[in-house]
Write a structure and sequence with these properties.
- The structure is a single chain.
- This protein is mainly alpha-helical and about 240 residues long.
- It has one domain.
- Helix content is about 70%, strand content about 0%.
- The chain contains 10 helices and no strands.
- Helix 3 (about 50-70) packs antiparallel against helix 4 and helix 3 (about 50-70) runs parallel beside helix 5 (about 105-120).
- The two termini are about 20 Å apart.
- The model is unreliable at about 1-10 (pLDDT under 50).
- Keywords: Membrane, Transmembrane, Transmembrane helix.
Length: about 240
């Protein structure tokens, strides 16, 4: 069944790049709690996006452990990196044993392992934050460029969640809302980069790690809430 206004590729035709990207973004948004259920409260959506207490611990503790241990005892570097990666490995193992979705924990483990490997290779604690800097640069640029050319990544995700594909591009109000949401998300990533990159270049590891934590979930949660509230105004619940 297709929703009114939904654009579907004709039978036998290949999906477009926008179809594939939108579906992928929609699935990702659904996994973090941004579903199309009008009964969900903003608090529930934000809590789901953060993964609850487990998700918060999985995203905060490895980085926090690295910062604390590195500050107290910067040498050997392997100690702080090992504890950080070890915590990520424990979270992943617990999820596997409990047969709960391990994707977030596995992603965190891979990211922590790659960052630790780079830091050990260069011998600089600050290089543990390089993957995060690259992520902020890529995500921020992609969000803003996509919004500026009229293909907001937020719009693509919500469009496929709501079953209308890319039909939202024909609605001026939706295009405007998704444009500004895309700009806001892109600005969030680039602001992180602009604050953290000078600290990385100055080799201020403790301050860099602290600000990474402060500019993580505390900024992510309000952005999810704003996005959810904006989307709900575009898709009022049926009586």
């Amino acid at each position: 069944m297709t929703s009114p206004g939904e654009e579907r590729p004709e039978s036998g035709t290949e999906p477009t790049a926008a179809d594939i990207l939108g579906a992928a973004l929609g699935n990702a948004a659904r996994r973090v709690g941004l579903g199309a259920d009008g009964d969900e409260s903003t608090q529930k959506v934000v809590w789901g996006a953060m993964g609850g207490w487990r998700g918060i611990l999985e995203s905060v503790l490895p980085s926090l452990a690295f910062v604390v241990i590195f500050t107290v005892r910067p040498e050997p570097l392997l100690l702080s990196l090992g504890v950080s990666v070890g915590l990520a490995a424990v979270f992943t193992l617990v999820r596997l044993l409990q047969k709960s979705p391990p994707s977030a924990a596995i992603g965190g483990l891979l990211a922590a392992g790659a960052a630790a490997g780079l830091a050990l290779w260069t011998g600089r604690g600050a290089d543990n934050f390089v993957p995060g800097l690259i992520t902020n640069a890529l995500y921020g640029t992609a969000m803003i460029v996509a919004a500026l050319i009229g293909w907001s990544l937020i719009g693509l995700a919500v469009g496929f969640l709501m079953g209308e594909g890319t039909a939202w591009r024909g609605d001026r109000r939706k295009r405007r809302v998704y444009f500004w949401l895309g700009i806001a998300w892109g600005a969030l990533f680039l602001i992180r980069l602009s604050v953290q990159l000078p600290l990385y270049l100055a080799d201020e590891v403790t301050l860099l790690g602290t600000l990474k934590l402060v500019m993580g979930l505390p900024l992510f949660a309000p952005m999810v809430a704003v996005t959810w509230l904006a989307v709900r105004t575009l898709y009022p619940r049926a009586e």
